[in-house]
Design brief:
Length: 167
């Protein structure tokens, strides 16, 4: 399997920080920042994000968030100047983040089929573990196609999914 292929572990959790081992735009990244994970029952407090530094505390996100909501690949964010923790999104990329969980699926081919379809749709993706996939849809049209794909697979018990947006 090539980069981003099904079944490859792309990130691991180190303590209370979720990290990305193979960000989709690693070639553009030159800095690492953190974002707070707001989910109360999460064992992790932060997600480490690969970014391209634009100014002292302004960055472009170069990975697909696994756990943080309301962030997407390509968003420009502002951080504090001491811990480089995200304060806010300055310029949204227009992209959409989805997460697919394959852990409850008994269909071994579900991952490969979803990956093949995502590639045809022109979506980028990263694996956090063999069961958790983060997906970027670059625009509204692709986002709808990805949502339709994931919804149909969820209805057939092949995966569970969520969007990365809360609003």
């Amino acid at each position: 399997m090539g980069p981003g292929g099904a079944g490859k572990v792309r990130a691991v959790a180190e303590g209370d920080v979720a990290v990305h081992l193979s960000p989709v735009r690693r070639d553009r990244a030159n800095f690492i920042i953190r974002a707070s994970i707001e989910e109360a029952n999460s064992p992790r407090r932060f997600e480490q994000l690969w970014v391209r530094q634009l100014r002292q505390t302004r960055f472009e996100i170069c990975c697909i968030p696994f756990f943080v909501y309301d962030l997407a690949l390509g968003d420009e964010v502002e951080t504090d100047s001491e811990e480089f923790l995200i304060d806010c999104v300055i310029q949204p990329s227009g992209g959409y983040t989805f997460r697919a969980w394959f852990g409850d699926s008994s269909d071994a081919g579900a991952r490969d089929e979803v990956i093949a379809t995502l590639r045809r749709l022109g979506s980028e993706f990263e694996w956090y573990s063999p069961n958790l996939l983060a997906i970027d849809a670059a625009d509204e049209g692709r986002a709808q196609a990805v949502a339709d794909l994931l919804q149909e697979r969820e209805q057939h018990g092949r995966l569970a999914f969520e969007t990365g947006r809360t609003s």
